């Protein structure tokens, strides 16, 4: 079973305050780029893997989706998601992505934001998603970028000119990475870009777009703290078709 | 026109001594992985872009290719390549990849080793290759990995544990990178992984395999200097089909 940090009360309380939870999709700087990678949602059956507070499922329904199923490991998250809607075509369900079971040939779009790097058996998950999609169905997801995750001590350094610089080591050593983020020892799984892409391809997906998030000039102007994201990619955005 | 460092006598002399030039394909540690990404060469018409001394064209013919065309900017390289074979089905030609013209629908495999990062207009090149391939034809190529190329000062650091660590900055700032490698100010073009992959996809290619070269345990045992390549990827290997 995946580590469930979200049901640790202190974690949940702090996590609930970050901009992307308070402001929903628009609180995530990468959202405009993710949105540009999504198909037209009209009449699509959507599944959101690691749905958190359920923002995406509600947004999908508001934008024409026929139905939305949000799945999350955390009881706290699912309780909050359920409290946020009375839409009968949205369902929120507690489940572990490590052991996910989905009906076959039943969805047109699988979406996931910043959840898959918590999953150890990515191959199993991707094959499960592939079977759950109709032919031509879309998988659009974001994960922490392997450049961000690889190093033993991932933190900003300064180079000889004083420029913000990110360290990379043990890049090809895949597996556990533990960091402190609102809780001690949050467990994530590092995979190379190659492994992530080849796992999709081997499961039968066709890669449609790969983006390493960098803020726009306007985003940096509005929020100067984002400038450092130009130095190294924080998130990896991928779209693929079954 | 691309910078032609290979016809600077001092550069050419030093470059001719590196293992992959002295020993050919087997002198390159990534070659076994590249070879695993190639289609069966039997009866294929092959073009090798940035052919250098022509090793790959000769190997392709020895492994069943119907013909091989090797292209390189450097007169020195092409002279050496021509001197290395009397095979009438191998042709070596001087041309600049920035302005490459190829006959349409004429090749089954386009191959390139460590040349495309010298090319500024990657989109033009990829579209030219795509048109030159038959439907289902293969493009298999290697480039320097963007993690290797991005930083303003690309050199090994030590992290707080003394571990070899590679710096990344200005990752999303694409364009010129100048380094000293046998010659001063060798000009290369940094592109993100996303840009490289999306350029292929937008030109009509389907991505088949993406590999970030890391040496095997056996390679490290035989050549301990390769161990550092585990810390950060040096080369990016891609196969795609038209």
Query: Which shape of chain A, going by the Cα principal axes?
Result: globular
Instruction: Name the pair of protein chains with the most residues at their interface, and give those residue counts.
Output: A-B, 39 and 39 residues
Report the sheet-strand fraction of chain A.
Answer: 25-35%
Spell out the helices and strands of chain A N to C: HHHEHEHEEHEHEEEEHEHE
CATH overall fold name of chain A: Rossmann fold
Major beta-sheet overview of chain A: 7 strands, mixed
How far is it from the N-terminal to the C-terminal residue of chain A, by CA? 27 Å
- Strand order, main sheet of chain A: write it out: 3-2-1-4-5-11-10
Quick rundown:
Chain A contains nine helices and eleven strands. Chain A is of the alpha/beta class. The first copy, chain A, has a single domain, classed as Rossmann fold.
